[in-house]
Fold this protein.
Amino acid sequence: MEIVVQKYGGTSVGSIEKIKNVARRLIKAQQGGRGVVAVVSAMAGKTEQLIDLAHEVTDTPDMREYDVLLSTGEQASGALLAMAIKSHGCKARSFLGHQIKILTDEAFSKARIVSIEAEKLLEEMEKNSIAIVAGFQGVDEAGNITTLGRGGSDTTAVALAAVLGAGVCEIYTDVDGVYTADPNICHDARKIKKISYEEMLEMASLGSKVLHARSVEIAKKYCVPIHVRSSFSEEEGTMVAVENEEMEKYVVTSVNYNRNETKLTISNVPDIPGVAGRIFKPIAEANINIDMIIQNVGSDGNADLTFTVAQNDTKKALEILQGVARELKATSVSVDEDIAKVSIVGVGMRSHYGVAAKFFSTLAKEGINIMMISTSEIKISCVIEEKYTELAVRVLHEAFNLSLE
Amino acid sequence: MEIVVQKYGGTSVGSIEKIKNVARRLIKAQQGGRGVVAVVSAMAGKTEQLIDLAHEVTDTPDMREYDVLLSTGEQASGALLAMAIKSHGCKARSFLGHQIKILTDEAFSKARIVSIEAEKLLEEMEKNSIAIVAGFQGVDEAGNITTLGRGGSDTTAVALAAVLGAGVCEIYTDVDGVYTADPNICHDARKIKKISYEEMLEMASLGSKVLHARSVEIAKKYCVPIHVRSSFSEEEGTMVAVENEEMEKYVVTSVNYNRNETKLTISNVPDIPGVAGRIFKPIAEANINIDMIIQNVGSDGNADLTFTVAQNDTKKALEILQGVARELKATSVSVDEDIAKVSIVGVGMRSHYGVAAKFFSTLAKEGINIMMISTSEIKISCVIEEKYTELAVRVLHEAFNLSLE
């Protein structure tokens, strides 16, 4: 049996009307005898509501119970979708994480899937019934409910597609695919037809919210093609798949930006071995991720260290840094929240020269100053003043001819 | 270990503030080393919201999925309550129906509990942790989620108390006990200190909403004392327990009423064997419960049959009756929705004469006409015009001296 896994995000099931629309799409997908598994998110806004309730109880909700609470959102939308399909006289059944044993580790609120027992889903499909799976949730060895973190339903869907050997995992969302840049900023942004796992992974970590990074990792590992598309149209979206010749036409695939980082600088610390460790160890221990780092060594043998963290970690990072600064006798600690990270991504960079030079000169021509730089084999990122974000995205998009088919 | 089971209804957990109040009560109950199990309902209004969502999808929601949907209410309130307890530095853990295998039959939306595996709750209590159980829900042999019907959390609590050998099952609600009559109608109604299971069962089926009838059946079977009390005060409420001498002081225990029934009459049907069957069989097949029945046989050998059904079954019952009337050549079918059933309950009736006579003469004195009568060993019910409901309750309450301590 040919199997397709379809995942519907929160906006796609955001109202009863939209759930009925999804039901019709699933029934259609089943025609011709395909086995259909639907993975659903909570109705749009529901998860935020539940998070607010938890924070009304306490500032630091217990994470085991937090997952019990949050997992109700997907349970409800799955049940409503099954009702909608059955009201058409078709077969459907909803499944929760524990009912098909989506086994995860015990990291509540950010658990990772270990295995899935998909037999019940296969039985369901063999009965010509649409199997609906509550996304985002699993169960640990002890039978506790766990959740997979924001965007976790994507991961549920891709993991199911891998286990079931599905031909494709379709991710339905409120945009109709992955674009060369944010269409709200860059009006001639183009929908990308095919993109490699590697590029999509870079994009997910550079600020693109279309797919959960972990879902792309799993797709890559098990070679599951992901089709990102809109639940409100029939149009083809973007295929995320193994790198192939067709994709290599473009040197750069997309321009991305992220305005949710803060730049912190600690000035005049002694430039001796072990100093960076003394600065970054307490920050790591506070579970704060550091993105970019640069170090400038002055002629006096002292150094300035600059790095970026997520904006909602700023307060905590600053407190730690001020403590470290006192110990190291650093002269000052400064914070800059008015920054943005602008990046280009493309597997074509591996075999093309001059990409970085073009990137820097394009920004220089507009008088945009580059504060920090970070590169990988397939991406270049830099930190600039926040006010230039839109301009930078537009000129880079044009410089690399991304609007052309 | 001495164990207490406490059940908190929807109004008792109706807001985060109220949930925090319940958390404090549970922590207090645990002091002195008692094992505490809390059973929670969904937050007030939540179940209605979910039912509305289901009916927005379809008029006839699939019952398996209906239970998956509805059970999320208790899951959420249980998690929130556990968070609230833990925020005080105390131990707690929430459990769902499937996690302690509250095994039920497969009658979705009105399932009956078959067995419970309570070991995990005992382990939890031995760790000095408060075990919180989502009320109203269970799981069938195949692992499907089931629910126990309206008021089902009472049943969860009493069944757990029975399995765990708890000394008492405390049912916390928005009233502070069981009253001799509705205090909103009868201002000198008195809180009953002790009442027998038999009387409470009659009251539950006569319109009292304090306890779910099934919970009283289980309490009676396993001799679990139920303490009905308010979650907003420390006052003693009403003990529901085995009939004992202390209770026999009163001949009549309470006056009850129910305004949610309709009277239907089919006139001039032939008075021959099998006619009642032909009338009531199709009504039973439509899952409509009939409460009271009377038959008047005229001198012409024809009979009038009158019976009552729940008001929300009126439309369906009327359609069926009109069909039957045509077949039986009955002269007419009439409907009366402006009726009320008024009842008195008391185990003392068994050993006292003249109770019925006093009941009838009390109503007659006020000019209240009795349309139908039904009796059991411990209750007398009659149907009267709805407009006399309050008056009838008050004069009966006075005639049987129910306000006196």
